Amino acid sequence: MTTSSIKRRRSPHDARASNDGDGLQQEENDYETDSNGTRVLATDAIDVNGVTITANLGKRDSEEDSWASKGYSYINPFVHRIQIDSHIDVAKIYVLSVLLLPIRVVGCVLSLLSAWMFAYIGLYGVSLEQLQAKPITGWRRCFQYLTARAMRMVYTSGSFHYINFKGTPATPKEAPILVVAPHSSYVDSIFVVSGHPPSIVAKRETADIPLLGRIINYAQPIYVQREDPNSRQTTIRQIVDRTRSNDNWQQVVIFAEGTCTNRTALIKFKPGAFYPGVPVQPVLLRYPNKYDTFTWTWDGPGVLRLLWLTMTQFYNRCEVEYLPVYTPSPAEVADANLYAHNVREVMAKALNVPTSDYSFEDVIVMSRAREMKIPFPGDIVEIEHTLDSLGLFDSKRDMELCDSFLSLSNTDTVDIITFAELLQVDLQNPELHKLFALLNHRHKGTVSLKSFLLCSLFCKLKNCDIITFLRSLIKLYSPSSQQIERQNFVRLLRHAGGKLNEQKAQALFFALDVDNVGHISFDAFAQYTEKQTSYKFLYHKSEHIRRPKTNAAKTTTVTSN
Do 556 and 522 touch, CB atoms closer than 8 A? Predict the structure, then answer.
């Protein structure tokens, strides 16, 4: 086929629609004709120092603001939605918002103040260094218990009246570390205050939080100093020292996943809890409630909405199950990752959920994709795995398609047959159909070529600096890198992250277009920003973001209907 035109064809995915021109029609609607007969973007304009700058470009790439595709069904542990379909339950929420919510808020505040008061008394005359050196004893330990009881009342006031305990808790000598999963919410800390408070691992900044900081200090946490380049090793050493100490330290609680998930699968455990090589006790958290109004994930409701919905239920339940102590084998003592993997398998089996190849690092990738306006950031990791399976990471086909993109037609409505031809991949390859389904968010049997190219180039270049990524996208927006018009320049800079909004991008264009010729070169843009300290973020490499390994284990999937 030629590269000058993409012809629509009937395909197995075209059952529900034969044509989808939403994106192209939007492109046309975003232009209007000025007094000189020139087509320009229809926008609202503001005047800055005598220069007219549009405040809001109407044009949006149709899929850049879509967080996750619904075209392919698989387990994504970082996406959560609340579905309340009953009109009675909705009415109950609004009624309790008036009648019960204010009382609960007052109860939470009073309980929190009581906990702070007990912590203040218990910490009187004790420095933070002393708290880190030796476990507290005597009357201070009694006040520590009272602080935990007061914090438990915070949750009771907030609707968590019941905690059902299963299994037998181990003593600190039997299992110095408690490995807790799944970690899905701020509510998970209810486990920490449900009895004699164990130690936690927390950021050093939490010690300075008003009210809560003093309460957290009283739990004698292991603080992580993020500004310290040796923070990881220091934290591991502190955990090892406590677990092997002869002092009467309380157990250390570690949420091994390292981030919140939706409990549909257990993601990779971080190995920090397993480096000491001591026995651990796995602890499971469950929330057997009608509605899940407290799961707080990367893509889901915000914390205020979750608090509101949680506190407007009559009550919520939490279930804590202590599994038998897991004693590591010599091989597991020598390999913390193997130890973490095997403990995760035991916990997943007890929870009756699968394990997933997702990890905390994937949240970093998805967050970066969202900042850079990449389509479907919630699916970008799965898209990345699929591209790797198709062998497209080592291919330059996406760059070739970028170079000819503006000369192609119907790029917003590419069917599966054309998609296979463009990528030069066998139409029968199941990974191709998976990739197509991930991009087919409209369920109309077509995908956007631009969305694919943005995703593909992001996955390949996510470790590079932003300026390199932007350079690779030029041909998606402008025929030439030497003559980039203002509207195309602004669209291109949408992918520079959240620090460059439309007004800043347009102001930057006018600063570069000193001769008022109506276009600039990308090289001029790069040279200008490289000298300005305010644009250093464009040249920062994200080397901590991992690349998938060929033949690596893929994320758990479920069959799509």
Answer: no
Q: What is the pLDDT of residues 290-338, one digit of tens each?
A: 999 989 998 889 999 999 999 999 999 999 999 999 999 999 999 999 9
**Segments in 404-501 forming alpha helices (H):** 416-423, 430-439, 449-461, 466-472, 474-477, 486-493
**Predicted pLDDT at 444:** 84
Q: Show the CA angle centred on residue 145, arms to residues 141 and 150, nearest 5°.
A: 145
Share of the chain above pLDDT 90, in %: 53
Q: Which two tokens stand for residue 440?
A: 């087919």
Q: Is 195 left (phi over 0), alpha (psi -120 to 50) or beta?
A: beta
CA nearest neighbour of 405 among 473, 459, 486: 473
Residue type, 247: D
In this structure, the number of other CB atoms found within 10 A of the CB of residue 543 comes to 8
Q: How far apart are CA 527 and CA 486, in angstroms?
A: 18
Q: What is the pLDDT of residue 242?
A: 86
Contact between residue 274 and residue 280 where contact means Cβ atoms under 8 Å apart: yes
Query: Which pLDDT belongs to residue 87?
Result: 93
pTM above 0.85, yes or no: no
Query: What is the distance between the alpha carbons of residues 213 and 147, in angstroms, rounded to a whole number?
Result: 13
Which tens digits make up the pLDDT trace of 192-223?
998 778 888 887 788 788 888 889 989 888 88
For residue range 467-524, list pLDDT tens digits in order. 999 999 999 999 999 999 999 999 999 999 878 888 999 999 999 998 899 999 999 9
Amino acid at 34: D
Q: E strand or H helix at 342, and its extent?
A: helix 336-351
Q: In this model, does residue 20 exceed pLDDT 60?
A: no
Helix (H, G, I), strand (E, B) or coil at 46: strand
Q: Sort 83 into a burial class: Cβ within 10 Å, 0-12 / 13-18 / 19+.
A: exposed
Residue 71: closest CA among 495, 317, 375, 320:
375
CB 290 within 8 A of CB 331: no
Task: Tell me if 217 sits within 8 A of 128, measured CB to CB.
Answer: yes
Candidate ranges 14-23, 65-74, 401-410; pick with highest mean pLDDT: 401-410
Hey, what's the torsion of the CAs at 4, 9, 13, 16, to 10 degrees?
Answer: 110
Positive or negative torsion for Cα 438, 441, 445, 450: negative
CB 339 within 8 A of CB 271: yes
Residue 453 has a pLDDT of 95
Cα dihedral value 298, 302, 303, 305, nearest 10: -150
Asked if residue 168 has pLDDT above 80, the reply is yes
Beta strands 39-41 and 31-33: pairing type?
antiparallel
Write the DSSP string, 157-172.
HTTEEEEEEES-PPPT
3-class DSSP assignment, residue 30: coil
Place of tokens 């651990």: 280
Query: What is the distance between the alpha carbons of residues 67 and 60, in angstroms, rounded to a whole number?
Result: 14
3-state helix/strand/coil string of 424-451: CCCCCCHHHHHHHHHHCCCCCCCECHHH
Please give the Cα distance from 483 to 485 (Å, whole number): 6
